[in-house]
Write a structure and sequence with these properties.
Number of strands: 10
Distance between the termini: 28 Å
Bound molecules: NADP nicotinamide-adenine-dinucleotide phosphate
CATH topology of the largest domain: Rossmann fold
Strand order of the largest sheet: 7-6-5-8-9-10
CATH architecture of the largest domain: 3-Layer(aba) Sandwich
Number of helices: 11
Structural class: alpha/beta
Order of helices and strands: HEEHEEHEHEHHEHEHEHEHH
Helix content: 25-40%
Length: about 260
């Protein structure tokens, strides 16, 4: 039994520093942080984890003796369902569709897993080039990262062991859309893993097409859940028991109508 509560604090853009001074004054244990403050908070923290530094965004903050520390639990959330699978991740060549905020956590996670090449596909060459540049602080990541235009998918899909959708294509209410069509999905390796970060609907059209090819599929619910579990572990300074994780999963499914 823990005597804590988790409540929303709406903070206007520009008011973050004042809000954090308030949190310090009343001894808050920690907090989640989301849009529009995920980047703005970084200079206000005394320490930032490598994951959050790599991604350039913080989603979880906690109090330490020396001040507020931040990380981004989307990274461990993303890899949590992958870590339950037995694979030699150094031999897995992932292909990531899209290069927005969520793709950054995916890339940091796949780097932590040890994937030696990470292929990112986008529809706009200029944005792709800027995306590649945005990792220039980390040779650990740029040495693995390869960027491709969408047209290259037909040659990338037959060679990949892990296909990840980080685009919003197929998200409710556009449930019939898929970033990869049936003809392209048919080129998938039989033992591939196909992972969609979208959690509504479940499964997405993208995952349905992958299932029809016999792929192992993962939807975005576990990532959403596990980033929350990771935050809770930081704040409580202890592992979250499996029955509590199950309770959190059920609450999330009920909330999302899944
Ligand atoms: P974002 O920053 O807006 O990035 C979206 C990316 O998808 C961009 O690279 C964008 O490319 C690309 N894209 C959008 N429409 C496209 C299309 N029709 N064809 C090809 N590419 C397209 O969004 P985000 O924050 O990364 O979130 C992306 C998805 O992940 C959302 O569905 C979100 O719900 C989900 N998500 C899930 C979790 C989880 O815990 N499961 C966590 C975070 C996000 P352009 O720049 O060219 O538009």
């Amino acid at each position: 039994m823990h005597d804590y509560i988790y409540v929303p604090f709406p903070v206007k853009k520009g008011d973050l520093e004042k809000a954090i001074a308030g949190f310090t004054a009343f001894d808050l244990v920690g907090f989640s942080i989301t849009i529009p403050h995920k980047q703005e908070i970084m200079p206000l923290l005394t320490e930032i984890s490598i994951d959050a530094t790599n991604i350039g965004a913080v989603n979880t903050v906690w109090r330490t003796d020396s001040g507020w520390k931040g990380t981004n639990t989307d990274v461990v959330g993303f890899i949590a369902p992958l870590k339950t699978m037995s694979r030699d991740w150094t031999q897995v060549t992932p292909v990531i569709l899209g290069h927005g905020g969520a793709a950054r956590a995916v890339i940091a996670g796949l780097t932590n897993l040890g994937c030696s090449e990470i292929h990112v596909v986008g529809r706009n060459s200029d944005k792709l080039a800027r995306f590649y540049q945005s990792w220039s602080h980390s040779t650990d990541i740029t040495s693995r990262l390869k960027i491709h235009n969408w047209d290259n998918l037909s040659s990338l899909i037959p060679a990949t062991d892990l296909l990840v959708n980080t685009t919003p294509v197929g998200m409710s209410p556009h449930v019939d859309a898929s970033p990869v069509d049936q003809a392209l999905m048919q080129k998938l390796k039989k033992n591939a893993i196909v992972y969609d970060l979208i959690y509504t609907p479940s499964p997405t059209q993208f995952l349905k097409l992958a299932q029809a090819q016999g792929a192992t599929t993962i939807d975005g619910l576990e990532m959403l859940l596990q980033q929350g579990v990771a935050a809770l572990e930081i704040w409580l300074e202890q592992p979250v028991p499996v029955d509590i994780v199950d309770m959190m999963r059920n609450a999330l499914q009920d909330y999302l109508g899944l």
